[in-house]
## 1
Amino acid sequence: MTWQPDWWLVLTTAAAAITFAAIAARRRRGSPRGTRARDLVQVVVALGLVLVALRPSGQHEREVPAENAVDLVVMLDRTASMGAMDHAGGRSRMEGAAEDLVQLVAGAAGAHVSVIVFDDTARLLVPATTDVRSVVTTLGTVGWRPSAKAMGSDVSVGVELAHETLTKLAAQRPGNDRALVYAGDGEQTQSTARGSLAALAELVDEAWVLGYGTSAGGVMPVAPGASELVSRDGVEQRSVLDEETLQEMAEELDGSYVHRTGGGTLPDVARPAGSAARELVPGADYYWVVALVLVPPLLVCLAVAVRRWRAVKEER
């Protein structure tokens, strides 16, 4: 049993109960039996109303999910090539990546999730948060960088920021596991060689590289939602998955590479900190039972009041 009082009602009904009790005590001797009985009924009703105002209720146990003891960092490629339409169902690579990452993040509810996106530069789009809903919304709307603004892609441009982010997370929650998920197509269009991801390996307990695209490649809209395709000298350009680069990146991270073509099992990065706890919470209200019990004495009081009113009226 627990209580959820409405204090202003408790104080009001308690004052009434004290008043009625004082009147009953003062008139206890020398009053007719009927008067004493009426006073007693009034006190009982007032005390019952105090009980109603205290709102007695039951209790039940509910399970409290255990905190997910993992810091998850997502690195998402949003270069123009991620707009290539060679994912399952003729969709863009970015649509496939966003769909996968939404599912992955939802499965790691309670984890601290950070999202780094990169095109010409890298930025921390979502600082570490346990708000799954906001991360899911962001991932579903991130899109890719229009080709007209692209300056050539470097698949390793986000490494420095990822290293900084992971180092900070390790200092904040040293007891947590850290997981890194890299999602991209591996296409390096800058003339310089890409940088290594090996520096991140020592900062993570688990790493996954998710690859999007096909060896046949796909055409690319100039911008998300556009019908015009990227072309050069009148020839439509195709972006091709560089699976070899992605596999090398996974090796540098001491992680695993998965070619994502739609469907299939995604990495499970959930790390419960312990078994789920249970807590007691208020259940069904019982004040209505007390109120129901008070109906007969209330009717008695009402009948007595009506009879007295009639008597006074007849005397006039």
## 2
Amino acid sequence: MKVIASSLRKGNVVEVDGRLYAVLSATNFHPGKGTPTTSVEMRRISDGVKVSERWKTTDQVEKANVDERAYDYLYEDGEGYHFMEPETYEQLVVTEGVMGDNKVYLQEGMRCWLKTYEGATIAIEMPQKITVEIAETEPVVKGQTASSSYKPAMTDSGLRVMVPAHIGPGTRIVINTDDNSYVERAKD
């Protein structure tokens, strides 16, 4: 199935020159003059080699035909990360190599999209927004305006994010998993 390059997201699987690649990151760049482009970091599924590719945002890219289903995260052990399909209770193990940097987002019971090809898990797509708790943050500097200043913070899962000055330790916030950016204070 062909899709335009600008619609690619982290976790998608694309086919380039007959090989499958898992998208690690996709960034759209719109210069003031010239053609907008999409830069994509990918991992070749066959051997794990990382590749960078740049397309015009309107270029057609072949999205691979893989089995994509929702799974719930169960636990991690020496074998890998265990997920369960909610309707059939079928369990899959995702290796460290496929999980990559996504492990900091995992929370027990979290619903993720696993992509399998010929029975092997080749990519994982995390929810776009997740709720995390702030474990520690720097104190507020007097004189900073609340509207535009952000300070570094560490979540309980070890993820570093930039948060507004009014956010303190113990506060639950919603972050965007594409770029680890602060979205809002959690409603719960």
## 3
Amino acid sequence: MLIGLFMVLMRLLDVYCWVLLLSCIFINLCMFGILDSRNQIVWKVGVFFSRVTEPVLGPVRRMLPNLGGVDFSPMVVLLGIQYVLQPLLLEVFRTLLLR
């Protein structure tokens, strides 16, 4: 039971990392004019990415200094997931298994 829960949490974090990366690629493709945001499907995909990533990226953006047009919040969130959250979950899992 506990192993299954741990695996699901780790897999969800992996999926969220991929969603963040795809969102960054999608935004850049729209900004460079490769994707037309007036297209209904492209617009819906953009809204989906925005709704999924903005609750996490918004607070991080407010904490980071304004660097002009460069947004480092996805990188900060990805690094936080990879180097803080996943190792923390692993330690909690190990602690619970040793009890």
